[in-house]
Amino acid sequence: MFRYTVVAIFKVFHGKAREVDDSLDEFVGFPGIHYNLFISTKRTLMKTKKDFPEGMVPLGKEKFPFHCHPGVACYMTCCKNVDMFLYPYDVLCLKKSLQISSQQFMEQYARLVKGATHSYFPSVMLRLIDDETRACPFLQEDGCGVYPDRPSACRMYPLERAVDRSPEKGTASDFYFMTDHSYCLGHQEEKIFTVKKWIRDQRLDDYNLMDDLWAEVDTVFSGNPWAGEGSGGPKQQMAFTACYDIDNFRLMVVKHSLLDRFAISRDQKRRIKESDIELLKFAFEWLKYFLGAPSSLIVK
């Protein structure tokens, strides 16, 4: 059975990443703006709160106060001097919002760094303004210029998310944690949320789903499936195109008649042809098939 490989856990603060711990087993995390949690499957499933690192307690159904708005003194502070990872669905939504191609987005607004969870596939980070502010390139005088399509990290804050992916359990479980950054005054506001209400308010369901699908693919990458071709080889370049350059991947699908090679219904083919989101889902499954991992695709 395919298993996740060992990765590390990193906390990402303003402009600085450091390794924190490698004791959280069976999890893969997705970040708030300043926090990145990447967790592995190497020993046994965590069963109780005491298994979490000190200071990290899942919120459960507890209520919490938070409200970010122009009236708080720290407004837009979190949009500056911040290192933010971008996932494939983030790039898809942002390039659509900006009305540019995925290739243009990657060239103008993204930068590649060594993989955050493993060294076999690069991570994508937001390219900040190159001055003393290190501000988000989409930050305007009155706030976020891409707010309806902002990345999952921005939506998730002030929460942090980890996902239990234990094969033994059969289903994934979410755990949410609260951040506590001294500069953020949104915690002192009177608006009250639960995790469920926050997810609904920030429209996180689609982002969580797509990030979870991406995590499955990244786990395949963590097993170094490139057959010794090394960094930047043909397979890895193809994988990067499928994940982060949806426009060129669409051209590849058409050129090589990929949809006709698998048992895909006529209706599903139509959705893939019309929707970048459905195409990205297909890309994830196709990559798993292409790299020899379990996939939902069935060859004709």
Strand proportion, as a percent range, falls in 15-25%
Low-confidence stretches: 1-50
Across the major sheet, the strand order is 3-10-11
The dominant shape is globular
Total domain count: 2
Determine the number of helices (DSSP H or I, runs of at least 4 residues).
9
The major β-sheet equals:
3 strands, antiparallel
Distance between the termini: 24 Å
Q: Indicate the multimeric state.
A: single chain
Element string (H = helix, E = strand): EEEEEHHEEEEHEEEHHHHHH
In total, the number of strands is 12
- By secondary-structure content and strand pairing, the structural class works out as alpha+beta
Amount of helix: 25-40%
Rounded mean pLDDT is 82
Radius of gyration based on Cα positions: 19 Å
Structure characterization notes:
With 300 residues, the chain is of the alpha+beta class. The chain folds into two domains: 9-218, no CATH class; 219-290, no CATH class. It is built from nine helices and twelve strands. Helix 1 (88-98) crosses helix 2 (102-109), helix 5 (205-221) runs parallel beside helix 9 and helix 8 packs across helix 9. It starts with 8 loop residues before the first strand and ends in a 10-residue tail after the last helix. The model is unreliable at 1-50 (pLDDT under 50).
